[in-house]
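Long-time lurker. I teach an intro course on protein structure, and each term I like to show students one example going from raw sequence to a predicted 3D structure in token notation. This year I'd like something fresh instead of my usual example. Would anyone be willing to generate the tokens for the chain below so I can use it in lecture? Attribution to the forum is fine with me.
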Amino acid sequence: MDRLILLRHGKAEADSDSGEDFDRRLAPRGIRESAEMAAQLADMGFRPDVALVSPAARTRGTWESAGPAFPGAETRLDDQLYHADSGTIRRAAQAAGQSCATVMVVGHNPGLQELTIQLLIEGSAPASLVARAQRHFPPAAAAVFLFDSNGRPHFDGLFFPER
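-- Reply from a regular --
Happy to contribute to a lecture. Here you go:
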């Protein structure tokens, strides 16, 4: 894997018809912000070869909104990504990255935010950037990292939705 794109699901509805967290769908704002973030990433040349997507309704909805900006990206629903911790997310991305250059993970906080912070620290990002990621990683936020030949991450972008 040369590049990792972490995309938090868009703004979700507070409740679902079933009462289950897993079934919460995107709110209209979440649909819009997910599509806008994907378009912004694609415009900057960030295009995944594969998207690993949590099977929860809000992450599937995020990918449905974002996916058109990334034609040709393979979609893989990954059960282990539902509320995964940072280590699980990283291992899933690394496994997918063995056969492609750019991996996107569409998932949940706190795991995505924690992984973003870990990769920023490992890549010696400025303290101000680490602090920014610690303070806030809102719905539809994205973090992008390049990896060198030794597997060391390098910060390539931190993006928040326009409100």
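Some talking points for your students: The chain has one domain: 3-159. The longest strand covers residues 153-159.
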